[in-house]
Amino acid sequence: MSDKRIQIFTGAYGSGKTEVSMNFAVDLKKEHEKVALVDLDIVNPYFRSREAAGPLREKGVEVIFPAGVLATADLPALSPHILRVLQNQQYQVVFDVGGDDVGAVALGRFNSYFKEDQYDMNFVVNTNRPFTRDVMGIEKIINKVMKSSRLKVTHLIANINLCNETTVEDIMKGYPIIKEVSSKLKVPIKYLAVEESLKDELDPNAFDEPVRFIHLYNRPDWLKRMR
């Protein structure tokens, strides 16, 4: 785990950054007393961390999102509790930010806190999505996110997947592309996020970075029945 108190997760639409951020928050709770996951996703109304608030709270993670009717709205509404956990140094704070540069704009309101405190901004990459299939596409979106958020991407997270149809071959095919981006931009890969069902098939020693097997908290029922 990182020693940075604030962890921001962003990425292109469909990168899987919500699942990655939720798993990161749950793992943080094993080491820290107070962990808050801030749902700052104003882009995708269907796969947001607030949809898994129940299971996350059972694991001791505080989930922050707008209350009442705004909880299900696809609007740029922000909870006042975000400032509470940012100002309280006892909290480890994880941000789940909406896809691409549009979602990153919401981070601007809290920019002063990120400058005052150390943070990681983790860009989650899935090479099986239309705009992040190659080095040029990934670099373009990273630059847009940094411009919109006024923050620097500090790490990449490889989350190479085809949802329920992901194979080890898919991961091995996408990994060199993300390695090339890392080398070109001089941004390290923090780890590879791999769905836990592949744990017996994937050799973690095949990669230069750690592999973290993740649980899918937001998997719809129809996908659960397929594997």
From TrEMBL:
Membrane spanning residue stretches: none
Highest taxon listed in the record's lineage: Bacteria
Protein name: CobQ/CobB/MinD/ParA nucleotide binding domain-containing protein
SUPFAM superfamilies: P-loop containing nucleoside triphosphate hydrolases (SSF52540)
Pfam short name (any one): CbiA
InterPro entries according to UniProt: CobQ/CobB/MinD/ParA_Nub-bd_dom, P-loop_NTPase
Gene3D superfamilies: P-loop containing nucleotide triphosphate hydrolases
Residue ranges annotated for the CobQ/CobB/MinD/ParA nucleotide binding domain, each copy included: 14-159
